[in-house]
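pls read this protein:
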Amino acid sequence: MSYRSKKILGEEDSAFARSLFKAMGYTDSELKMGKPLIGIANTWNTLDPGHFGLDKVAEAVKNGIYAAGGTPATFGTIAACDGVAQGNEGMNYILPSREIICDSVEIMAQAHRLDGLVLLASCDKIVPGMLMAAARLDIPCIICVGGPMLGGIEFDNRKSDLTSISEALGMVKSGKISEQDYNSLEDTACPGCGSCAFLGTANTMCCLAEALGMTLPGSALIPAVYAERLRSSFEAGQAIVELCKKNITARQIITPEAIRNAIRTCMAISGSTNAVLHLSALAVEAGLDMNVLEEFEKLNLTTPQIAKVNPAAAPDMEAFYRAGGIPKVMTELGDLINGDCITVTGKPISENLKSYIYKYPFNPSIIKTRENPFSKTGGIAVMHGNLCPNTGVSKPGAIDPAIHHFVGKAKCYNSEEEAEAAILGGKITAGDVVVIRYEGPKGGPGMREMFKAMKYMYGVGLAKSAALITDGRFSGTNNGCFVGHISPEAAEGGPIAIVQDGDEIEIDVDNGKLELRVSDEEIAERFKNWKRPDKPIPNGYLRLYARVAASADKGAVIMPENLDK
């Protein structure tokens, strides 16, 4: 077949381009027409532990491409660490970095006429950015993840991880543990590289990439330090060459049915609420006419939660993988999964699941059957009400059933930092609903995670007696009573902007309701006097993002048409 790379390697005047490749040591054999030129988009760096091991993964992929008769070409793109950015101005840049990753991959693939891509990623915004690039480019692509890290020392009745440190700080402040206990976690909670050991956004999106059919079966949760991770990466290199030969492109895989499979899987494992943002953005990039939030709302009613891991339970990602991982979850979901969807193996999901070989014994305490689930409905809930006229998002799978219905008094803060200081300063008490606003896509800008605020509430003992709502978002590891992604956001004049201290707020997770118990007349009167706070936005990328970003219910994706506003 004729590959895209013929334009640079196989035309009459291609000696010009081949000469540039040969300047880097490429041989005539590698540049021979008929061999697909495969890009390896490598997000390796020494700032993000989830990506620290991708240099080895890239080598394995490269060898797999060579073995299958392709020519690999590696390039880099950014990958920022959510953990390092938590609770500071760095978090403003994390969600917007997703668009930069997508754009940079598009530019490299198009500028060099690459025939296919292996997209290396592990962490929160990087996996979605790579999926978005694949959908936008619509060439053969495969996602190859770096794998989760192992759990750390035992703490609070489970293996510790990064979130244990934030919870421990709250425990120190409330006198539950000593300073020495807290300090020791710094060296023992994260024992090695990989995406964090809980079902946060990073591992959720790796799992959903597999559910979409964009990774090799079973590869999403292989721990970073397992030798199997390198074997799987080699196989990914082989698989991309076959995809190029068969011309199976990303949009043949990323279909409405595939996104519904990903939503079902997210519900079944109670994945991160950020999946709503990222799947919405993916649907936009794939040119699909579907409302992802409506799909979440509809499918939640008929999808049982059959897996329970940290933060909803003690088991970490290694335990989840050994219990059967995503193949086991999708198999147990049965006919709720569309088995006809094509995948990067070139085969439909049904064939992949049927032939998948499990290497470890099943663990029914982690992955249950569809007939005997943890919950009859899914782990993510779409919320409606006068506080979120468009939508909000909650996560019943990570909320104690006793507080699925919560009524409390508002305490309002116009930034994450203000709220965190109040929590650690003992100003939040049982029965309060912490309201954090002006942290949405435009208002933040960048829609920061309220991860630390929730972890501090857990640490000071308020996880089951207070709640938090925000137009920002959450990490997949948060638990407690919370609603995020409130849309319209405060910066766009959403009702969350006019909530006052002492207002009564009702959160009804089971019925998907978020209500401010204030009359419509009072709300209208407050809006007459409302003025958006003058919050300075630094020059540079954030200023652009604040101008062109869509609302949370539209995936916070960049919308070029917003430039005309």
Summary: The longest strand covers residues 405-413. The chain has a mean pLDDT of 94. Residues 156 and 238 are 43 Å apart (CA to CA).
